[in-house]
Amino acid sequence: LNKRQALSLFGNDISPIVLEVEFQTRDRLRFKLYDPSRQRFEVPLKISSPGVAANEASYDVEFADDSSHFRIKRKSTGTVLWDSPLVDLFFSNQYLQITTTVPSTSVYGFGEHEHPSFKHSMDFVTYGMFSRDQAPTSFANLYGVHPFYMCVEADSNAHGILLLNSNAQDVSLSPNPSITFRTVGGILDFYVFLGPTPENVIQQYTEAIGRPHMPAYWSLGFHLSRWGYGSIDVLKKTVNRMHYYDIPYDVQHIDIDYMDRRLDFTYDKVNYAGLPEYLQQLKKEGMHNVVILDPFITKDEEPGTYRPYDLGQEMGVWVNNSDGVTPAVGKAWPPGDSVFPDYTNPRTVEWWTQMCLEFKDVLDYDGIWIDMNEPSNFLRGQYPGCAVNDINNPPYIPS
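Above: the chain sequence. Below: its structure as tokens.
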């Protein structure tokens, strides 16, 4: 293969499915499977690709003569890093599945879960990835999805694999050893990082997806946070008690009970009367503070009385239903029903920034604790539901 090549794999009732391979850097390649005749959602993350020639890459890509297998090998050792039997590939409207062997059982990653250990069991373990607002329990999916794993090979070389897909998905680890990816939408879009050390793998991975932000120096200090102080008097007593016992203490958090009826960008002027002045006092004493915000906005306040919703409605920033026009409606902490900002929309960034700047003039916060941004919804789905999910004609899901 050269820098980029596409292979038509098989036909369905509409068109062939294409496997496209892109040699991106010496130690990174991308391959994706998609239907060229039908547009499907792809994660809007732009990853730069300078491109290299095949003879410059540290990997080889091979197809079996009959297109039944697709392999990626490390040139220096011949180790097969990815080997998919393409006859087992599923690519339908709402079910996609691909399996690969892995060169060892030393597999790590697949956050965020309550994993029993950093090294995964390969004994037919399945992890669901739904970015779910769920209390931690064994094998439970937590608040984020990281469909990335690193495998340490038998000779101690390491490589990483990312599935760039944001739909509901799961992954199964089997003792072959092999890994099976399943998802209910989008495309199969994989990035392979050749390392060869674990540190190199993570460096290459974060080069592709973006480096972590450097935190503020004060945020590395000791924090105190809980839900349910209930009033500014309880908050003050808590702060004073911490200082009285000389407990290391740099940052105080306040949870949703500081809000007026749990409405974002407000504070309770009865139970938390004097909060703006108290935060200024803490600053003078060398403390910092973090306030919570939940990225869902009630839509049921009186028109003209709740600026976050009114401005968001005017700017058209909400997540919409499948018609692309009607906002998806769910239920969360605030009174009434809620709508959800769409942070893939550039105008949403403008709206959020504007609201945060206005709120800082009210409460002089040092940091924002963003909670329940999965997005979290207390209902089973949203009103009125997704037109694509026809309960009378569900998609075929193989057993």
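The chain has a mean pLDDT of 90.
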